[in-house]
Amino acid sequence: MDIISQLQEQVNTIAAITFNAFGTLQRDAPPVQLSPNYPEPPATTTATDDATAFPEQPKQLSAGLVKAAKQFDALVAALPLSEGGEEAQLKRIAELQAENDVIGQELQKQLEAAEKELKQVQELFGQAADNCLNMKKPE
């Protein structure tokens, strides 16, 4: 797998971990009273194992997120440095655009030739169909 694909995969991993972390925290966090003006939130009826494991979950989730972010940083550091700086990159872009224009013109010529040939084939097919319809059956 190339480096760009690995970076994309790592970004997806970070997004999944973040999504799961927020979802887990939202699902498992104990209710908290937002203001003294609001009533006390209802007590949750969870098993004691879940209640004691909750303080560890954010630590585990954040550790996973940090690990994924470090892997992403390592992949970014492994990217090859650009050679020649910005001017060389702009020159290469101009060369590629010129090459693209030449190929585009060739493709346009091929498309026009193909359309002309298609029109000829359609005319010949029409003539052949007309000839077949105008033929008399042998007596």
Automatic annotation (TrEMBL):
Keyword Aminoacyl-tRNA synthetase annotated: no
Subcellular location, record wording: Nucleus
UniProt cross-references to Pfam families, sorted A to Z: Med21
Chain segments carrying region Disordered: 28-50
A molecular function (GO) term: transcription coregulator activity
Coiled coil regions, renumbered to chain: 93-131
UniProt entry keywords in alphabetical sequence: Activator, Coiled coil, Nucleus, Transcription, Transcription regulation
Tagged with keyword Nucleus: yes
First and last residue of the signal peptide: none
Domain of life the protein comes from: Eukaryota
GO BP annotations, alphabetical order: regulation of transcription by RNA polymerase II
One Gene Ontology cellular component: mediator complex
Family to which the UniProt record says this protein belongs: Belongs to the Mediator complex subunit 21 family.
Function text: Component of the Mediator complex, a coactivator involved in the regulated transcription of nearly all RNA polymerase II-dependent genes. Mediator functions as a bridge to convey information from gene-specific regulatory proteins to the basal RNA polymerase II transcription machinery. Mediator is recruited to promoters by direct interactions with regulatory proteins and serves as a scaffold for the assembly of a functional preinitiation complex with RNA polymerase II and the general transcription factors.
Subunit structure: Component of the Mediator complex.
Protein name (record): Mediator of RNA polymerase II transcription subunit 21
Organism of this sequence: Microthlaspi erraticum
